[in-house]
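All the exercises in this workshop are built on plain-text protein records. A record pairs a protein's sequence with a compact description of its fold. Backbone structure tokens are a discrete shorthand for how the chain folds in space. Once this layout is familiar, the rest of the handout is easier to follow. As an example, a complete record with its sequence and its structure tokens follows.
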Amino acid sequence: MSRFFVEKSAVKENFIEITDQSDIRHIMKVLRLKAGDFIEVSDSEQYEYQVELNEISSEQILGKIHDKQNFSREPEIQVSLYQGIPKQGKMETIIQKAVELGIWRIIPVFMQRTVVTEKGNFKNKLVRWQKIADEAVKQCKRGRIPQIESPLYTKDVFARVMKEHDLVLFLYENEEKITIKQVLRSAAAKKESRAPLKKIALLIGPEGGFSEEEACTFQEIGASCATLGKTILRTETAGIAALAMVMYELEL
């Protein structure tokens, strides 16, 4: 059953309005659905619905709500990926796989060893990246669409990352002993008497990794350093591997 996303204001007492033109075209032209067919709809915040199509036109689609449930495929923990911007099309792979694994949001970061610049069509890249996240969510049937936020510079990350998360993990190739599992279990034990770990940040360097200056600053502000294993992973692999490890330890 195909899934669509609407704003919460589009959900009424007994029916849902779909007004997005691309969704309407997809329903009418691609899926060729008719009155009486069912779709899944998410309100992008909390609930998902089974909806029977009633009225279909090029202006809007009205569907009758048959079932309403809390999100069934959204992780309880919120993992944010601060990704050093890689070259070429690697970011697209990172976004697609991270969304499938349950990422909360992705923040591209210009780091000291980032080769890509903001010149040219970077705004177009953000639009493209968000579209990839949208499509990945529909494929894996999550309840909400993770946002691809505007890029930051490392100094901006230093200023905000510790304030916004319960745990900040930066994965560093020069760390050889401390594992993600050790960091997560140690952090969870410290928070036993308080609220559990919920908001986690993963910091991943670009192709050249973190500079020594960046690594030292992350440690100085209180971020936890960990290794991803004995081998050196590519930047497009590192974030996905780290996310999978965090989800396994805290969510699954």
The chain has two domains: 3-70, 78-250. The mean pLDDT is 92. Helices lie at 21-30, 90-101, 122-140, 154-164, 180-190, 212-220, 235-250.
